[in-house]
Amino acid sequence: MYRLSPTAIPKSYDLEIKPNLDDFTFEGTVSITLQVPTPTSVIELNAKDLTVTSASVRGGDGNEQVLQVAHDNEHEILTLQASTVIDAGTTVVDIAFSGELKDDLAGFYRSSYQDASGETRYIATTQFESTDARKAFPCFDEPDLKATFKIHLVVPRHLEAISNYPVSLVEEVSPTEKRITFEETMPISTYLVAFIVGPFRSPKVETTTSGVPVRVLSIEGSHELSEFAYDVALHAVKFFEDWFEIPYPAPKLDLIAIPDFGAGAMENLGAVTFREALLLVDQRLASKAELERVADVICHEIAHMWFGDLATMKWWNGIWLNEAFATYMELVACNAFRPSWKRWDSFGISRLEAMDIDALPSTRPIEYPVMSPSDAEEMFDLLTYEKGASVLKMIQEYLGVDRFRAGVSLYLDRYRLSNAETTDLWSCIEEASGEPMNETMRSWVFQGGHPLITASLENNRIQLSQEPFRYLNRSDDPQGSIGSAWLVPIKVRVDGQEHTVLLQGPTLELEVGGGIEDVYVNADGFGVFRTMYKGELRDKAISGYGQHSVTERFNLISDSWALVLSERDTLKNYISLLRASATERDPNVLRLIYSSISLLNRIADSDQKEAVSSLVRELFSPIILELGTEESEEESEEQALARAIAFEALGVISNDKEIGAKANELFRMDISGLAPIPPNLASATLRVVATQGDDSDFAFMLDRYRNPRDPQDKLRNLYAVTVFRSPTLSLKVAEMCKGEIRIQDAFIVLANLIANPFTGDRVIAYIIDNFAELSARFPEKTRPSIFRTVPLLCTETSAPLASRVEQFFADNPMPSGKRNIAQQLERYRLNLRLRENYGSRLANELS
């Protein structure tokens, strides 16, 4: 068993850690005050990769006895055996231990950076979620075993130390070392503890309207990139205090940029850690997408201070309680921070990625039983975050904001400083709203998949029916974890009038009268289902395209494309819809259209590609003709983003020479220091240059990656070098993933290289041949992410590798990514099936 036996309950920790940044080790002591319910001779804690040098227990009478130590490495449990019975009541366990500061991005680990002179320096930092606090100190590493923490760090005098709460005392312990003691925390779970050691500085301290001090900390040389983070953080704290009607729960808020960080960010109470590129940004040079991403992540992590840190799930099966709500609240907060971003519109793309996975046999319920640490790791996926947030938004739309918010506030107030189950939240929302939320949410949370709603018109009645939606839809395809029936809130708009219904069975009839001109199922676009219109309703939905909202137009195209992929509709019908949407200028919808055409270009046989290029010119050239290739001060942000998508589509798929010349002009101006590429056009420009470019362009981008202006500039150029058509250059970048490129970026780079339609076949063969060496560098958690683009190996040259790819995964199981790999292979089969259906006859389908 992976769960600890309940022989002792932690109440407080007194923890001292001393890292050594020369030999990458640490040593420490921890005193844990325990409540022992009944007399026992055995205490179980969690520990992993630690050496315990001594352990003893002190009872209420002051007597101390040495404990025998045994390790269960498989289950990561440390057993302390007493020679005599430990009495019930309060007792203290004292443990001395040591460990290694590895570079595996987990537990208490080391991260490197280069100082002003180019010399490599090191810091020590933590990443404990979900079950890696046990790699830093022996502890009760389960989320419902909350306790207070008093932390002491012994560090070199020239370095700073940060933890969850403010510093209470600094003592000199030697001419070269100091001991920093932090205030004792409120009760928190072990995964939320943090301590960071390094030359971190903040340019200033800002204070929220409620008096909370806020700092943005980073390594020297990047402080000028913190202003945007301050703006977002100050907004977020005030926004959430007002929305939840509960004060910010910690005495400070530090946002810390870490050079090497496996996740995007981590919501440690009062000491939130980030990838540098997701916190530090130059507002003058960043695109809207980059600023949006930084704001999203900051708002997400600050939302966790309430949803996760203050009120916490009891066990990892309920992690979606934290992550789905933090995702939902990041969108609410960012929408208030920059209303012009129309954040709920742009959420469609990430929501769609989750629905794509959710239509596969290997999907899972939003919540499912978690036994082992690897089970917990697999919960951190698009289904937890994006599908979970989508379900919440659907329920909020159905209930209305006020009733939904009242239920959330009731939940947070009732379970503050404690732990809750998923059903506790639904009970609170049901209590506040008077609606049957427990029954409704069970159908969405405890089964995988989502429904296909079919709409038809019969005798002045709209017939709505539901069935499970599956991409692999043939009779011999597995059903897997896709469920069977949902309680579906549906908004139907008929000639401007909205009808809200709850579909509780297989079918439902809606009386609408005669003479219908316009109809849309899933009005406002936030229902978590696919829609298929039958007969004249399809014609009416398409003919009213221009009157639909952005989210509705996005869903209309997304659903139509999904029906093609699932073999429920023809590609010709989808293309006719694209032509009906020729006046589309919203960047979210255009990005979706470009994505689907990119896949068509990928599956096309070589003699069919001109037909795809022709379609791209038909749909995207008018945008360039209308907007030009130069940004203007008068245009909107949406126009700038629409230009960038059209620019990339024409330059990458159609190899448009005029677009290529303009991209080269912008690129040369940038690298010569004359003028930066307009931010919203920067990524598209680099991709066009790389797609049409040569070795010298590669060299310039590689140099810019090594000597960037800011973190976003670094990543733009790193990702662009994965797009070149030369196998030699692609394999050079793959080799760099063995050393030069940071681990946090290298698995993304390898995934991007696999996605390269010109060299992906060479790269996947390289990875298969070198997987033993790559595995030695990449932490186990990150390895499955290398293969997230395997479904794109469906080109004329890479599709023949399918059997070798399948065999590779059979020979190299990845326990922490078992479900993720299964999902990628199913998507791979789906794309190969699309190629089989259309790859050799696209010219006819697109005519």
From TrEMBL:
<dbReference type="InterPro" id="IPR014782">
    <property type="entry name" value="Peptidase_M1_dom"/>
</dbReference>
<feature type="active site" description="Proton acceptor">
    <location>
        <position position="301"/>
    </location>
</feature>
<feature type="domain" description="ERAP1-like C-terminal">
    <location>
        <begin position="519"/>
        <end position="829"/>
    </location>
</feature>
<dbReference type="InterPro" id="IPR027268">
    <property type="entry name" value="Peptidase_M4/M1_CTD_sf"/>
</dbReference>
<keyword id="KW-0645">Protease</keyword>
<feature type="site" description="Transition state stabilizer">
    <location>
        <position position="385"/>
    </location>
</feature>
<dbReference type="GO" id="GO:0016020">
    <property type="term" value="C:membrane"/>
</dbReference>
<dbReference type="InterPro" id="IPR050344">
    <property type="entry name" value="Peptidase_M1_aminopeptidases"/>
</dbReference>
<dbReference type="GO" id="GO:0008270">
    <property type="term" value="F:zinc ion binding"/>
</dbReference>
<dbReference type="GO" id="GO:0016285">
    <property type="term" value="F:alanyl aminopeptidase activity"/>
</dbReference>
<feature type="binding site">
    <location>
        <position position="323"/>
    </location>
    <ligand>
        <name>Zn(2+)</name>
    </ligand>
</feature>
<comment type="similarity">
    <text>Belongs to the peptidase M1 family.</text>
</comment>
<keyword id="KW-0031">Aminopeptidase</keyword>
<keyword id="KW-0482">Metalloprotease</keyword>
<dbReference type="Pfam" id="PF17900">
    <property type="entry name" value="Peptidase_M1_N"/>
</dbReference>
<dbReference type="InterPro" id="IPR045357">
    <property type="entry name" value="Aminopeptidase_N-like_N"/>
</dbReference>
<feature type="binding site">
    <location>
        <position position="304"/>
    </location>
    <ligand>
        <name>Zn(2+)</name>
    </ligand>
</feature>
<feature type="domain" description="Aminopeptidase N-like N-terminal">
    <location>
        <begin position="10"/>
        <end position="192"/>
    </location>
</feature>
<feature type="binding site">
    <location>
        <position position="300"/>
    </location>
    <ligand>
        <name>Zn(2+)</name>
    </ligand>
</feature>
<dbReference type="GO" id="GO:0005615">
    <property type="term" value="C:extracellular space"/>
</dbReference>
<dbReference type="InterPro" id="IPR001930">
    <property type="entry name" value="Peptidase_M1"/>
</dbReference>
<dbReference type="Pfam" id="PF01433">
    <property type="entry name" value="Peptidase_M1"/>
</dbReference>
<feature type="binding site">
    <location>
        <begin position="264"/>
        <end position="268"/>
    </location>
    <ligand>
        <name>substrate</name>
    </ligand>
</feature>
<dbReference type="GO" id="GO:0043171">
    <property type="term" value="P:peptide catabolic process"/>
</dbReference>
<dbReference type="GO" id="GO:0006508">
    <property type="term" value="P:proteolysis"/>
</dbReference>
<dbReference type="Pfam" id="PF11838">
    <property type="entry name" value="ERAP1_C"/>
</dbReference>
<protein>
    <recommendedName>
        <fullName>Aminopeptidase</fullName>
        <ecNumber>3.4.11.-</ecNumber>
    </recommendedName>
</protein>
<feature type="domain" description="Peptidase M1 membrane alanine aminopeptidase">
    <location>
        <begin position="228"/>
        <end position="444"/>
    </location>
</feature>
<dbReference type="GO" id="GO:0042277">
    <property type="term" value="F:peptide binding"/>
</dbReference>
<dbReference type="GO" id="GO:0070006">
    <property type="term" value="F:metalloaminopeptidase activity"/>
</dbReference>
<dbReference type="InterPro" id="IPR034016">
    <property type="entry name" value="M1_APN-typ"/>
</dbReference>
<dbReference type="InterPro" id="IPR042097">
    <property type="entry name" value="Aminopeptidase_N-like_N_sf"/>
</dbReference>
<keyword id="KW-0378">Hydrolase</keyword>
<feature type="binding site">
    <location>
        <position position="129"/>
    </location>
    <ligand>
        <name>substrate</name>
    </ligand>
</feature>
<dbReference type="InterPro" id="IPR024571">
    <property type="entry name" value="ERAP1-like_C_dom"/>
</dbReference>
<dbReference type="GO" id="GO:0005737">
    <property type="term" value="C:cytoplasm"/>
</dbReference>
<keyword id="KW-0479">Metal-binding</keyword>
<feature type="binding site">
    <location>
        <position position="783"/>
    </location>
    <ligand>
        <name>substrate</name>
    </ligand>
</feature>
<keyword id="KW-0862">Zinc</keyword>
